[in-house]
Amino acid sequence: MPDPSFVFAQSISGLTAAMFLFLIASGLSLIFGVLRVLNFAHGTFYMLGAYAAYQLVQWLGVGPGRFWLAALGAAAAVAALGGLIERVLFRHLYGKEELYQLLFTYALVLVLSDSAKMVWGTQQKSVSRPPELTGSFSVFGATIPSYNLLILLLGPAIALAFWFVLQRTRVGRFIRAAALDRETLGALGVNVSALYTWVFVLASFLGGLGGALISPMRATTPGMDTEVIVEAFVVVVIGGLGSFWGTFLGALIYGQVLSFGILLFPRFSIFAVFALMAAVLIVRPWGLLGRPLR
Amino acid sequence: MRRVPWAPLALVAALLVPAAGSRFYTFVANDVVIWALFATSLNLLVGYSGLVSFGHAAYFGIGAYTTGLLMKKAALPFLLAFPAAGVLAGAFALLFGVFCVRLTRIYFAMLTLAFAQFLYTVAYKWRDLTGGSDGIACVPKTALFWGGPSLATPRAFYFVVAVSLIGVNVRRYELAAFVLAGAFAGLAGGLFGIFNRGVFPDFAYWTKSSEVLIMTLLGGMGTFYGPTVGALALILLNQQITSYTEYWPFVLGSILVALLFGFPGGLAGAAIVLWARARGRLRSA
Amino acid sequence: MYRRTLLVLVIALAVVVPLAADAQKPIKVGMPIPLSGPPALFGDPASKGAMMFVEETNAKGGVLGRKLELLVRDSKADANEAVRQARELILKDNVDFLVGTLTSAEGPAVSVVAKESKIVFIAPIPKTDQLTAPDKLHPYIFRTAANTTIEGRSAAEIVAKWPVTRVATMSFDYAYGQDVTRAFVEHLKKIKPSVQIVDQQWPKLGEQDYNPFINAQMAKKPEAIFSSIWGGFFVTYSKQAKALGVFDTVKYNFIGVGEAATPETTKSMGADYPVGIWGNSYDAFYWGETAAHRDYTARLSKYLKDEYPSSWAIQGYTGMQFLVEAIKKANSTDSDKVAKALLGLTIETPIGPQTIREKDHQANRGQLYGKTAMDPKYPFPIMKPVTYVDPTKFMD
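^ inputs. structure came back:
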């Protein structure tokens, strides 16, 4: 019987990973829900968020509150980039086959990540934890870094904010309607074009914020984009593409399976995740909480 | 207008390469023809059934590992190991296809990608069988049969490869398209493993799937020669550009964007448009 | 008669001129090496170190009266791409030699091409033992990098001196991680039988979240930890481990191989680095053991326009240096002759004398090891004191 404090620590680390993944995957899922395209460039937005946060921290210097300013600034910059790309390029592909849209997002991965390499080089970059959150708590004998606690709380907070926007606002209703039936929405006189831009901006913001917020816990390096996109992809496939709560659930499952998987099969925990994904795909191809699309 | 006999012409042209070219161009031709086979197999699926697979590299990888392992560990001759690549890749395509093909196009793309990532992880982790990240180096270039003629020269090997490509003149198999596409991708993988003299997990990674999609798109989807043209164009381009700059992904991405916006029909599509225009002008003159 | 003389002269010229021209042709060296993705962190500076050596050699008049020409290609850390680039360099660009590759997949893959083409190939970075294993060894492959045996055993020699018995390991689950960890564990058990390996964690290559692995490991109460998490991934790992209090718990009885203590890594982390742990590096600009090293560092610093120049440049530099010394010794650019000249060749490098062993084509390349500490001279930690661990006595 494992030590209860260890089980607790393990579930907390799984939860932290889940909340972080939710942050990234929610943007991916949002774009899919509305635009029906898997945005490969979402991981690249995440990477750009991390690099932008690093750059802003360099400019702003270290001090109380500076990191948060940098993180928000980075997310805003990535959101602006996402909006720009949608306005100038992506919207011209809406009428075309899904394949073209998919390949376009892949072209973005190539161009944007190579551009990041031109700007920041190949050396890894590192951002310090904000000075107000360098400590840690001890709960039930488990050590929980304050910064992880923040991510742990931020996840549900963003989920709630999201839920509020989707359920209680006009834009949210349009987004939900778009996820169900795009054609009718336009017929009802909704400015679909603006809606799509805002969806892109919001999703890019979430990706950029994810990258910025994770930068104190990870190194910022070339190639971090293709790593994260695969994980986020697994999360949304398990939870249900385009489903908001599905993504949340998928992230929770992913985190716990990885955390406890390494105790059961130390070297093959990654297969536990894939086995789960395969099982979900076979039973409910549209994911646990997703809806089958036409 | 009489139909131009493209197939025999292409065959003759392809077989002339080793005779005319240097050793280097024979290698390039090998590379092109294998990728063309791979891209053509994808085109079978996308172009004729409308299903877009984003995990086609999985079957390429299965084929490569099958041939590589059979030839290296079981010391089987090429003539047995090569068809095995197609059979096994086809079998896996059948297995996955059962789950994938019943879905709508969007889920189909996602699912094929998910299965490919799964296989990639298996190749990476199962070190006892696949060699893990080290892959299988030194895949032997052995004889066609036991004691038969050797495939050791790039030229002889090239003929085998070129003939396999010309063989894929299959159209409209609808439901079976997925399995056939998988099988041919497996054959391409089997050839590539030998040509490359090694098999690595990267063969099944999702970026390989996107590379082959780009080739298909570049050449022109749904036209039989499109993927071959795409493979040729992309490989030659890669070669030229990587000699000058390390920013090949940037260039490739830009080309892709230009293609998506400017020439959605790919090179073959553009050629058809130009050809039609030229003929129209001739007629009106 | 006059005509015949003229004819003879013309023919003689026709024969001699191309020969003379040939002597003026540069000696071409191809370098397929990753310049993109996470390994670009090492590939990029290594290629620049090689380039600096080439430019310096050419400034001094070249080799055998000919200039050197280095052709660098991005192998994308992908074995297929490395093979494609190597073949193109050989067949199209007609390179005389290959120096390069980085990952443990690229090295052996390009080695097969070198064997086929009968071209000398020097691997300055790949560490996998497979590269020069008896069944893969051929006359044209040479390695100037440390291998996993050397690296694992060097770390074991250091850990054996610590007052600990409960040791744990943390390595990526792939060839390099597995091999270097096995070499470490086997050697440590041999030289200090009282040691107990209490836990081994195997995150996947490129893992981004180490929390579950760290929790599981710390639950086994190790007194010391061996890690081979490399490059930018070590930055990620150590940030998370530090937040969880790992380094304090094991009282800094922690050794990070996979170049965890390079100036690049400590510089990028600054004060966030877990100062007090042990680590290794191929080079360190502050080492300055010999005049040759101090001089090399000064030149490199100028060349890279970096006050604290990269520790990876040395690998490209010494790889090229071995090649050039062998060309001089062979007095030829014929690969068969150069390959023979490389056997048992000892040269003076900026980090001291290095020898390529005749029996396995492996250089006795050790690394710098040391306990990290802050130094008032630099805004980041350094290894203090820093020692070169000579592997000669435990390579077999």
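Residues 9 and 128 of chain B are 46 Å apart (CA to CA). The first strand of chain B starts at residue 136 and ends at 137.
thumbs up if we can close this ticket
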